[in-house]
Amino acid sequence: MAKTKNTVIEYRNYYLAPHFPVLLLSGDYWKISDVPSGRLHFHNCLEIGICHSESGTLEFFDKKLPFQAGDVTVIPKNIPHTTYSSPGQESRWSYLFFDPQELFRNILPATWRNIDLCGGYGLDLQRIFNRDEYPHLYGLALAILKELEEQKPSYQLSAKGLLLSLYIELRRIQSASRYGGGAEGVFPEKEDSQETDNALVIAPALDYIEKNYAQQFSMEHLATLCHWSPTHFRRVFHEIMGTSPLDFLNSTRIAKACNLLRSTEDSVLDISEAVGFRSISSFNRYFVKTMQMSPRDYRKQIQSSDRRMENQSILEYAGWLYPEK
Q1: CB atoms < 10 A from the CB of 12, how many?
Q2: Where would I find the H helices in 42-184?
Q3: What are phi and psi of 220, to 5 degrees?
Q4: Among 4, 77, 231, 277, which residue's Cβ finds the most Cβ atoms within 10 Å?
Q5: Residue pLDDT, tens place only, 205-237
Q6: Structural domains in the chain plus CATH codes
Q7: Over the stretch 73-118, which tens digit does the pLDDT of each residue have?
Q8: What pLDDT sits at residue 5?
């Protein structure tokens, strides 16, 4: 009996500038061939795709979804997928990559901080939105493209506002899919549930972590800030944020370390200490767990990408768009 071939999955880590974590890939050369890649990929941020022409297939692990011109696709981070056009066609696309949590850091309510439009690896929620069925979503996507392409005065501020509207619209659609109706249970200002009250109570802990992640403090101190016992605090924190307080703290530290690895020439040791890790071994272990590569490999990848961007076109930088031979 022939051995089953393993699925190859690639991780694509897009660099998003800290002051404006948005990346636009567009132009006539952004075309997808009709040759299936044979491998899936996932990335470190939310992807919004706009199909301008032709048709094809968006493929996940166990599901294939057809797309056509005028569709808007939404792929959360960490969801393996691939795209290919219908036989004999080359579909043209524009892609928006952005980090909602960073872009809307001072805007989103506390209960949204760990939400990325994904209920896990299952595809229970729609990923492709047709222009005729979702005209508002399509219009917002085109308006964002126009702002980012034309770059008129204050375009980043305008694009940020449009991206926030797009994100809220996606959350409304997601809520309707999950709850069978309007957006109840999603927007904190309209909720009266105990879960929302709990989320507001852990806000002091979230704010303290953001401001003091580089310092040493106990989880008991975070519980005290929220006026709860340590046991109750850990349980509620996990229910709201989907992770433990300690893992959330360390993930915050790794995210800050990634920014320093990209933007400074500080040593890995200095960076590990700057973000609050007591030992380089602990930093390396948690970095690999989070980013699937070592801090040094991460820095090399970013530097290599920067060099390619200086000397090559965007198509060469995004070599995954070449048809498979």
Answers
A1: 13
A2: 100-103, 135-150, 155-179
A3: -65, -35
A4: 277
A5: 888 888 899 999 999 999 999 889 999 999 988
A6: 9-185 (2.60.120.10), 192-306 (1.10.10.60)
A7: 998 876 778 899 999 999 999 999 998 888 887 777 655 554 555 4
A8: 43
The residue length of the chain stands at: 325
Q: Which residue has the tokens 């506390």?
A: 110
How far is Cα 180 from Cα 164, in angstroms, rounded to an integer?
A: 23
Q: What is the SS3 assignment for 32?
A: strand
Q: Using alpha carbons only, how large is the chain's radius of gyration in Å?
A: 21
Distance CA(111)–CA(33), nearest Å, equals 40
Strands 55-59, 128-129: parallel, antiparallel or unpaired by DSSP? unpaired
Residues 47/74, Cβ–Cβ less than 8 Å: yes
- Both tokens assigned to 215: 């310092």
Which two tokens mark 242? 């989907």
* 152 DSSP 8-state letter: -
CA 289 to chain centre: 17
Cβ atoms of residues 288 and 294 within 8 Å: yes
Residue owning tokens 């002051």 = 19
232: number of CA atoms within 13 Å, CB side?
11
* The residue to which tokens 């040493």 are assigned: 216
C-alpha to C-alpha distance for 128 and 140, rounded to whole angstroms: 15
Residues 6+ positions from 276 with CB-CB distance below 8 Å: 213, 214, 215, 216, 249, 253
User: CA-to-CA distance for 158 and 166, rounded, in angstroms?
Assistant: 12
Q: What is the pTM of this model?
A: 0.58
